[in-house]
Amino acid sequence: DTGVSQNPRHKITKRGQNVTFRCDPISEHNRLYWYRQTLGQGPEFLTYFQNEAQLEKSRLLSDRFSAERPKGSFSTLEIQRTEQGDSAMYLCASSLGSGNQPQHFGDGTRLSIL
Amino acid sequence: AQTVTQSQPEMSVQEAETVTLSCTYDTSESNYYLFWYKQPPSRQMILVIRQEAYKQQNATENRFSVNFQKAAKSFSLKISDSQLGDTAMYFCAFRALNGGSNYKLTFGKGTLLTVNP
């Protein structure tokens, strides 16, 4: 069990650029979640996959955000035309399918917009 | 919608002493889970302890225990024999057991705990 892996750990980019983050869940976990954490706040839910199906997107996720999970394995989160307000830690978590299983988090990707 | 409130932004405790972190929540759900997660500086968030709302017995994991008061919607975390490695941000979180939101966690803003030598 190698845990949830996220890449890159840090991303610095200029406003207006596109960025993509990757999350590799624990191998047998079929559920995958993305959260966003800003300074001084707890993580906020962004979106959720069960296998390859994206089942919910938070209203926090504007049209500039898109997430995919092809083949139900790794997931990518893309932000287009980044804005200052996108600066945050983006956390990925995964869990087994049954409702009582806890979510396991990765180290996160810290995004800084210049 | 659920809300989770942690009213203590920061706390400190001396090594080997006991500290209690507070959490209150609001929900109309009857079946749910409550969690405490720990996020050390620049490290990943890990699960400390969880409580099923239908269980009256308070959960315990080694030095960590909770005081779950369902009627009061209160869920505090007690850390006994505090260790330097307990220094971290602690988040209280809620997850509904049934219904359309039984997958996502709702977090409080966190309490930064510092254990002093």
Explain what you see.
The complex is a heterodimer of chains A (114) and B (117). Chain A has 114 residues and is an all-beta fold. Chain A has strands at residues 5-7, 10-13, 19-24, 31-37, 44-50, 53-57, 65-68, 75-79, 88-95, 104-105, 109-113. In chain A, the strands form 2 sheets. In chain A, strands 2, 4, 5, 6, 9, 10 and 11 form a 7-stranded mixed sheet that branches. A 4-stranded antiparallel sheet of chain A has the order 1-3-8-7, with no helix packed on it. Chain A starts with a strand and ends with a strand. Chain B is mainly β and 117 residues long. Chain B contains no helices and 12 strands. Chain B is globular and about 45 Å long. The interface between A and B is medium-sized, with 25 and 24 residues.
Task: Give a nutshell description of this structure.
The complex is a heterodimer of chains A (114) and B (117). Chain A is mainly beta and 114 residues long. Chain A has no helices and 11 strands.
